[in-house]
Structures are given as structure tokens and as C-alpha cells.
Amino acid sequence: MSDLPVDRAVRAPRDLRLDVFRGLCLVMIFINHVPGTVYENFTNRNFGLSDAAEGFVLMSGVAAGLAYSPLFRKAPYWPGIGRVWYRTWTLYLVHLLMMAWALAIAAGAALWLGTSHALHVNEVQVFLREPLGFLVGVPLLTHQLGYVNILPMYAVMLFFAPAMLWLALRRPGLLAGLSLLLWFLTGLFEWNMPAFPNPGGWFFNPLAWQVIFVTGLLTGVAMRQGHRLVPVRRWMQWAAGAVLLVALLWARVPAVGDTLNHLMWLANQNGVDRFFTITDKTYVTWPRLFHILALAYLLSTWDWVRGACGSAAAAPLALLGRNALPVFAAGSLLALLCQSVNQVAPPGLAVDSLLILGGL
């Protein structure tokens, strides 16, 4: 395979930006997963059209491209496939562990905190209503509980990652085109993964979210080869900045947000498909996709960001990011516990700080 580019970046030092921003996303996910506290007003979802989940999946794709792409440069490919699928199996097991603990936290809150709220929200109530369907759906991944439902989507991405990596090394443009086509058709026809016993589909729809993961994967492969996926251009920086500014005004200025939302509603009423006229997380509709891509591009082009991520102040975030899976699992379960505590604790800044800062 002499036509493949030389892997010049193999010995390059670790890019701390990836660790720091993954850690920052994990912090914001934890805060967002304890709704109702004052701290959730300061996470990134309040200042644009995407949130920490999109950032986390994008950087997971980058990490996969960096870590696994050398294994698919030439045959034999089975060692690389085995390594990726072993990680997929690990994600599946961690997800089942989180599901079991989520049920235990809901039951424990009813037993010892005197609140049954957690038994009737986040799809836990299905266990009480249809226990047999619930017990079938959990291991099949067709039933997922709220706040602990991102790993199945990521596991699906990693299961198909060997094919993606092989194609990314040889025909990156083809992989990008196929990914965008699948994203577009999924949103247009509202395709989704099957759900049971509930109707509907997955909240984190892999058929749509793959476009973010693939973008990250292609970025990681390019980084591993010693170059950028998308070059730094001044006009592209200005364009990305414009997207972020419009998104900020959309999210924070009621007059702007109401006007844009009304225009999208009018477009839908006049026959434009809802895929183009809503901001939907399940299908990663275009406002969310454009926002996370613009944000990632702009941050990656500023030299000061690299320096800040290498500072001592950013080291705790980097530590979280380097241990993303156990941190995410522990943080998600701790957030569910904090939700139950919030049901019985008096509201106020002191309790919010104890839960959020103590949890972090």
C-alpha cells in the first residue's frame, strides 16, 4: 500500500487539546444531568445550538482515528478489528452496569430518601409497567434509560469503525460523502434504530450521530498523518465565527430567537420538511451540526487554545479526558443520585454547590 500517506505523526507528543476538551465536555455533561441547579445556566448549551454531547462524540471520533488508524494501513486487519471490537464489548458491558445501577439508585431513593420520583421518569417507569419487555429490551439495547443512553450509540459507531477507518485511509472523500448522505436521508425519512417495548427509536440515533463521529474520525486520521483535515483559512474562520454569532443570538436574544423560530415554523407550514425547520437532537438537524462543526473548527485554529490546554490550570480537565469512559460512567450515576437528592433537599445555591461542586 505504498499509495497511502506516510504516518509522520506517530511519534508526535500527545495533543492535550483533545484531553482537555473531552474533560470539559464531561464536566458540562455532569452539570446538565443534574437539572435545576444554577450551574446549568453556564454550560455551552446556553450559548449556541449544540451541547456537550456533540462535542464529546466528535472528540471520541478524533480519538478513535488517532488510536486505531495505524492498525488498518495494511493487512492483516484482524488484530485491529479485534482491538476495536473489544472496546465495543467494553462499552456494552459498562452500559449494562450503568443501567443496573440507575435502577438501584431509583429504588434506593424510594427506600431511603422517601422519594419515588426517579421510579417514574427517565423511562424507568417502563420497568414497573412492562417488566418482561423491559428485561428483554435492556440487553438488546432497544430500551435505554434517560441520562445513561449515549454509550449504545457510541458502541454502534465503534462496531463499524474498522470499515470506516479502512475507507478513511484510502478514500476519505468517499467516507465523508456516504456519511453526509446517510445523515441527510436519516433526517429526511426519520430513520432510527428499533425500540422495544416502547414505540419510537433511540434518543441518540446512531444513523444521524455518525456524521459527527465520522468527522472526528477523519480529523484524527489526518492528525495521525501529520496534517489538518480542513486547512486554516482566514475566510473560513470568519465564516465559522459568523455561524457561532448567529447561534449565540438565536439562543440568548429572545427577539432574534423568536423571529428565527417563527420563520422556520412558517417554512414548515409551507411544505418544507421538518428536518430543515427544527433543531432536533435525535436527528442532529443542520443547526446543531453546523454549530458544533463551526465551534470545533474555530477552536482548532487558535494557537492560544493549544497553549491554554497545556497549562497547569487545565491539567485536571486533561486527567478527566484521558479517562473518559470511567469518568463518564461514574459521573452519570452520580448525577442520577444528585437528581434524587434534589427532590428532597431544600432548593438554593448551597445545595446546588454541594451537589455540583462536590460531585465534580
Query: Main β-sheet: number of strands, strand sense, barrel status?
Result: none
**Rg from Cα:** 21 Å
What is the tally of helical segments? 16
Which residue ranges are poorly predicted, with pLDDT under 50 across at least 5 consecutive positions? 1-6
Number of strands: 0
- Helix and strand content put the structural class at mainly alpha
Give the averaged pLDDT, no decimals: 95
Question: Can you describe this structure?
Answer:
The protein is an all-alpha fold and 360 residues long. Helices cover 66% and strands 0% of the residues. It is built from 16 helices and no strands. α1 runs antiparallel to α2.
Can you lay out the helices and strands and say which pair or pack?
Elements (H helix, E strand, L loop, with lengths): L15 H17 L19 H17 L9 H36 L11 H5 L1 H10 L10 H9 L1 H10 L1 H18 L16 H19 L9 H19 L1 H16 L16 H16 L1 H7 L5 H8 L1 H21 L4 H11 L1
Using brief descriptors, characterize the structure shown.
16 helices, disordered N terminus, 0% strand, mainly alpha, 360 residues
Task: Provide a brief overview of the structure.
The protein is 66% helix and 0% strand.
